[in-house]
Amino acid sequence: MNYQQAKRHPLSVAAERYKKNVSKWFGERKERLKEDYNPKSKTLTIRYAGIEDPKIIRQLSDAGEVIRWYEIQIAVKIKRALASQLEEKEEGDFLGGFPKDSTGSASVALKGIEKSLGAWNIFYRHLKTERNTIASLITLLFLLRAELLKNFPEAPDFLWPPEEKPKTE
C-alpha cells in the first residue's frame, strides 16, 4: 500500500513527468540529435546537426550519458524514498538511529538531480536553438530538488556507510 501512496504523491508524479519529458525531448530530436551507443567501449556518442567540434561532441556525449542514466533513476529513488518514509512512520524508531532508507534514497535522487542539472546546462550552452525546451526541463529539476529537500531535509547530509561514533570510556 505504501508504494501506491508514494506513486500518487505530487513529488513522485512530478518525477515521472520529468522522466517522460526527457524521453520525449530526445525522441522528438532524432533527426537532429543522433545517439550512438558502442557496447564494446560502453560509451555514448551524441552528435547534433551542425556541431562538428570534437570537444563539444565529447561534452554533449558525456552530458547525454548523465541525463540518460538519471532520467529513470530519479523517479525510482523518489518513489522509494516516499514509500520508505511511510513505512518508517508506521514502524516508529525501529532502526534506533540507524540511517533511514528514505533519507538514503532521497540522497541518491538529489545527487541525480544535481548531476542532471549540470548536464542539461552543457546542452543549454551548446544547443542554442533548443534553449527554451531545455530551460523547461531545468526548471522542473529545480522544482523537484526544492520539494525533495522540503520532504527530506537530511538528504544532503546522508552518509553511507554510517561513520562509527568514537567509543567513550
What would your notes on this structure say?
The chain is mostly helical and 169 residues long. It has one domain (2-157). It is built from 5 helices and 2 strands; from the N terminus they run H-H-E-E-H-H-H. The chain has a two-stranded antiparallel sheet. A hairpin with a 4-residue loop joins strand 1 and strand 2. The longest helix is centred in the middle third of the chain and has 38 residues, at 54-91. It starts with a helix and ends in an 18-residue tail after the last helix. The mean pLDDT is 90.
Measured on Cα atoms, how large is the radius of gyration?
Answer: 19 Å
Mean pLDDT: 90
- The class by helix and strand makeup works out as mainly alpha
Number of helices: 5
- The helix-strand sequence is HHEEHHH
Overall tally of domains: 1
Order of adjacent strands in the largest pleated sheet: 1-2
* C-alpha termini separation: 45 Å
Overall number of strands? 2
Q: Shape, please? A: elongated
Helix proportion: 55-70%
State the major sheet.
2 strands, antiparallel
Strand content: 5-15%
The residue ranges in which pLDDT falls below 50 over 5 or more consecutive positions are none
